[in-house]
Request: fold
Amino acid sequence: MIPPPSADRAPIEYRAVRRAFHGVRGITAGVIAIVAILFALTGSAPYTIPYAIGAVIVVADALYRRTRGDSAAPSLFIDITAMGAAMVIGGASPSVQVAALAYGIAAIALLLPARQTGILMVYALGWAAVIMAMGGSGLKPALDRGAFDGFMTIVLLIDVAVLMSGATRNLLHTQNRQQELLEQERRSVAVKNEFVSMVSHELRTPITGISGFAETLRDHWRDLPPTEVDEFLTILRGESDHLADLVEDILVIPRLDAGQLRFHLEKVDVSEIAESVAEMVLDRSTSAEVDLPVYVRVWSDPVRLRQILRNLVENARKYGGNEVYISGEERREGTYTVIVADNGSGVAEADQERIFEHFEQLSKGDARLEQGVGLGLPIARKLARAMGGELWYEDRFPVGAAFCFDVDMVKEPERSSAPIEVEVGADR
Reply:
């Protein structure tokens, strides 16, 4: 529901309807001015001259304020004064008085906050009291008022209808916008809760492993055979690395978004990094094949290149099949495309962009089949883009998924072998 306006806020935001309001106001006043002048020129209705003068003043004000001002109060003050003065001088039939009062009340109530509404309402009712006290005859009474007063009544009622219609559309738009914001807030809360739940679970797993094995070693290392001690230490190292990788993944996106992540660019051997990542991430249940020429050198940050590959290989291990292929090719001159593929079921077309959104997984909550916080692919894409490349998904033939990313190749002697430090978004 739309909340009731406070004393400092109007039911309709004036700036949102300012151009439309003054456009209709100026057109209406212009029509009244033309008709009033025509009636006056015929000599049969000299009482219309005050209406013509007042309408011209309103037209000028509408043209001036169509793109200026933050409040409708000055314009409504001019409208009330112009209509009131014209009725006092030229007179008005009861129908014109009622239509004018309806326009004034509707405009004041919709476009002004409560504090200003009271002041202008009293001002408008003051003019109405004077006009009623004069019996509507004015200072220039006329015997035949039918044609012009009928025209004025219709025009003013049309103004009221247009004003109410615009107000309704504006209120519905505001209500829809509020519903969208509420839905976004609900989604944000749901994402946050899901993220907290996943991170808590993911952090707890390596911490529990580290704590358990460390306690075992502390209490029993003298009694354990050296091979078992080495095995426990290897597990501790692996869990520590996993925990460090998880923390880095959680922190890297806000640093990227804030432009605070720095890259140390240097010549990198992609094959060496890919082989070390495959050995670290994949276990015996998944076979790996690294087919990258040893002579290929790229211009990249080795830490971030390793992070991209680690996230892609982990994604292939979790959602692919039992085989992972890391290859590459020079699809465009000066750019090397690294491909991490698997023999799994691939990704449905409807999900091929969603998987690159933060915290997105194809299975969530209790239905999640794999560990992770849904950050791997978004991180990989953001890092690839921050270093001047791109990362995208392709279907692998005949089955499986392929994630590809571009990185600049080193062309001697154009590049120096010394590392270069750049910030996110900086020109290289």
User: Anything to note?
Assistant: Strands lie at 262-269, 287-291, 297-300, 323-332, 335-342, 391-395, 401-408, 420-423. The radius of gyration is 37 Å. The longest strand covers residues 323-332.
